[in-house]
Amino acid sequence: MPKIRTRKAVAKRVKKTGSGKLKRMREFSGCHHIREKKSPKRTRKFRKTALVSDADEKMIRRCVPGL
């Protein structure tokens, strides 16, 4: 039986926390595009990390077997 290959694009975007949850970056590209109309508070939030939702977690764990 062949090994399950890791989806490298997904693996680079997700990290595992100490408790086993998955952490991701927020949409950083949205921070720069047409920035005039976005409030400073809104652009600051793009820098922080967020937890992956339960609905997406199953799909991501299938793409990255090591997580």
Could you describe the 3D structure shown?
The structure is a single chain. This protein is of the alpha+beta class and 67 residues long. The chain has one domain (17-63). Helix content is 39%, strand content 15%. It is built from 4 helices and 3 strands, in the order H-E-E-H-H-E-H. It has helices at 8-13, 29-32, 40-45, 54-63; strands at 14-16, 22-25, 49-51. It has a 3-stranded antiparallel sheet with strand order 1-2-3. Strand 1 and strand 2 (22-25) form a beta hairpin. The two termini are 21 Å apart. The model has no long low-confidence stretch (mean pLDDT 89).
Summarize the entry for a quick read.
The chain is of the alpha+beta class and 67 residues long.
Largest sheet: 3 strands, antiparallel
Read across the widest sheet, the strand sequence of neighbours is 1-2-3
Structural class assignment = alpha+beta
Q: Which of globular, elongated, flat, extended, rod-shaped describes the shape?
A: elongated
> Beta-strand level of the residues, as a percent range?
5-15%
Helix content: 25-40%
Characteristics:
39% helix, 67 residues, alpha+beta, 4 helices, single chain, elongated, 3-stranded antiparallel beta sheet, 3 strands
List the helices and strands and how they pair.
Layout: H1 8-13, E1 14-16, E2 22-25, H2 29-32, H3 40-45, E3 49-51, H4 54-63
Antiparallel strand pairs: 1-2, 2-3
